[in-house]
Design goal:
Blueprint: E1 2-7, H1 16-27, E2 32-37, E3 40-43, H2 47-51, E4 60-66, H3 70-84
Antiparallel strand pairs: 1-4, 2-3, 2-4
Helix pairs in contact: 1-3
C-alpha cells in the first residue's frame, strides 16, 4: 500500500471539477484509491463520495492506494493533485 498526504491549495477546496479529475485519473488504474479527511473516507472513483468529504482550502487529505499498479497510480494521482488542487 502507498500513502501520501496533500494539503488543499485551491481556494475553492475539493470542488466538482477537481473531484471529477481525480475520479477520471483513478479510473486509469487497477489499484483501489481511497481519500481520507479526518474520520471520513471516500472512494477515489466515486464523485459523490469525494464531494461528501467537504475538503476545504488548507485541509490535509490522506490518499491510500493499494493494488498491482499502486506505484504508477501513486505517481499519477500525486501529480494530478499537485497541479490541480
Amino acid at each position: 500500500m502507498k500513502t501520501f498526504s496533500h494539503v488543499i491549495g485551491d481556494p475553492l477546496g475539493l470542488h466538482a471539477r477537481t473531484a471529477g479529475l481525480l475520479v477520471r485519473e483513478s479510473a486509469h488504474y487497477k489499484s483501489d484509491v481511497w481519500v481520507k479527511l479526518g474520520e471520513r473516507l471516500a472512494d477515489g472513483r466515486n464523485l459523490i463520495d469525494l464531494m461528501s468529504l467537504h475538503a476545504e482550502y488548507g485541509h490535509c487529505i490522506q490518499v491510500e492506494i493499494s493494488g498491482e499498479d499502486e506505484e504508477s497510480a501513486c505517481q499519477g494521482i500525486k501529480k494530478l493533485l499537485q497541479e490541480n488542487l
